[in-house]
Specification:
Blueprint: H1 3-15, H2 17-25, H3 37-49, H4 51-65, H5 68-87, H6 91-119, H7 125-154, H8 156-178, H9 186-194, H10 198-204, H11 209-215, H12 217-249, E1 252-255, E2 258-261, H13 262-291, H14 293-312, H15 317-345, H16 351-375, H17 379-406
Antiparallel strand pairs: 1-2
Length: 425
């Protein structure tokens, strides 16, 4: 197991504590921040919307400085934004913090992906991407579970203060341990792959990435699949789950003879999602390394659609838990494997740029999700949104299947070496 993958995954996990907590707590307790549910939707989308711009900035920062300095700066800013969530009660201050976190995440995610792809080979790319996802998502699991429980016990202010301090500890640990391992910069990898001089490699890093994405059918459909998956799972379902549960069952939910506060229950439910990531992500990645990405990706699209259809039917609490778990299993497999597939197809000479464009597709989907899920205002409208999400996943499965079948070989424009496509299954 490459140590750099574990180290960067741990740093990202620590940075996610505060952000993940907001998705569990803020929609079910907006009054704690003096907000309406509509303003909560804006805040939960703002950090994702800004990444439509900040992803390309992150790629350029990597081209100029390499991965380590931008990641270090992002970890410092993550501590500041997490503390701000806890004590700010003005919408505009919270909005500024969410925008700043969006820039942080653009840098941290790209740095983590770059580390994984730098360490991986064709035989283990899916597995290592799954390991990274598993480690990093442990931070989200802690954020939503501990965040919900601690908020009910001591309030969101002190909970987020604790999370800010923990993020700082994680950042320091990464900074110290990463000094012993030097990840190759995008510039160095480009030069090694293409024989470019240092100057030409640096100036060419961010050029043509969108053109590569749009000109390669399989790469484009991977981006669209990521957009759909993030919109439905990380956007719509995650952001609206607290609202869905509150509207269906009230302030307390009775299950197995126990009454649980809706904030705690939402945190536990979202924590199960990240628990699924811990167990399933490496296994799904390894399975796709052996069987190919396509069959596992298509299965994930279908399972996710089934989970959303069950939720839209407003079943009893036991079936709600089952449906949410089904959707979370699909989400884990789908997103991890689309990350790996994007890494398969991204030309080394444009890897940072192409992966940043792919990340922008993801962020567009995840930003639209809370706006859709929390702007509907009623449970009935949310059910229609869930039905629409299920339909979108099925359409994407058909499109992915068709492109995989009809494009036996992908050639990325303006790249000397063709990128091998996955064999149709």
């Amino acid at each position: 197991m490459p140590l750099p993958v574990l180290v960067v995954g741990g740093a990202v996990a620590a940075s996610l504590f505060g952000d993940s907590m907001l998705y569990a707590v803020m929609p079910s307790r907006p009054e704690d921040w003096g907000l309406s549910i509509g303003l909560v939707g804006i805040l939960l989308s703002a950090n994702r919307l800004v990444r439509l711009l900040s992803n390309s900035v992150a790629a350029q920062l990597f081209a100029w400085f390499g991965p380590r300095p931008p990641i270090a700066a992002a970890m410092v800013l993550a501590v500041i934004t997490t503390a701000t969530y806890g004590w700010a009660t003005t919408f505009w201050v919270l909005l500024l913090a969410r925008l700043a976190w969006g820039m942080c995440w653009s840098i941290l995610r790209l740095g983590a992906w770059w580390t994984v792809l730098d360490e991986a080979t064709d035989a283990n790319r899916g597995f290592l991407m799954g390991i990274y996802s598993s480690v990093s998502r442990s931070g989200s699991m802690v954020g939503v579970v501990a965040g919900g429980l601690l908020t009910d016990a001591i309030g969101h202010e002190w909970t987020l203060t604790i999370f800010a301090a923990t993020t700082g500890v994680g950042g320091v640990a990464w900074f110290i341990t990463s000094r012993s391992h030097r990840t190759r910069s995008p510039e160095e990898l480009i030069a090694a792959e293409t024989g470019a001089t240092n100057g030409s490699a640096r100036s060419g890093q961010g050029q043509g990435a969108l053109r590569v994405m749009l000109g390669a059918p399989q790469l484009l459909v991977v981006g669209l699949g990521g957009l759909a998956g993030m919109l439905v799972f990380s956007g719509l379902l995650t952001a609206s789950l607290g609202f869905y549960l509150d509207e269906r069952f009230g302030d307390e939910i009775g299950i197995a003879g126990l009454l649980i506060g809706v904030a705690s229950f939402t945190g536990i439910a979202l924590g199960l999602r990240f628990g699924v990531d811990l167990l399933l992500a490496p296994a799904a990645g390894r399975l796709s390394d052996k069987l190919g990405r396509t069959p596992v990706i298509l299965t994930a699209f279908a399972l996710g659609a089934g989970g959303l259809l069950l939720l839209a039917a407003s079943p009893p609490i036991g079936i709600v838990v089952l449906a949410v778990m089904l959707a979370f299993v699909a989400s884990t497999a789908l997103i991890v494997l689309l990350h790996a597939r994007a890494g398969d197809l991204a030309p080394v000479a444009r890897r940072a740029g192409v992966m940043s464009v792919y990340a922008t597709f993801l962020d567009l989907g995840s930003a639209l999700g809370p706006l859709v899920g929390l702007s509907v205002g009623t449970l009935g409208a949310l059910r229609w949104a869930l039905l629409g999400g299920a339909l979108l996943l099925l359409v994407m499965a058909l499109l992915y299947r068709r492109v995989t079948q009809e494009t036996p070989r992908l050639v990325a424009p303006e790249v000397d070496a063709p990128v091998e496509a996955e064999r149709p299954s």
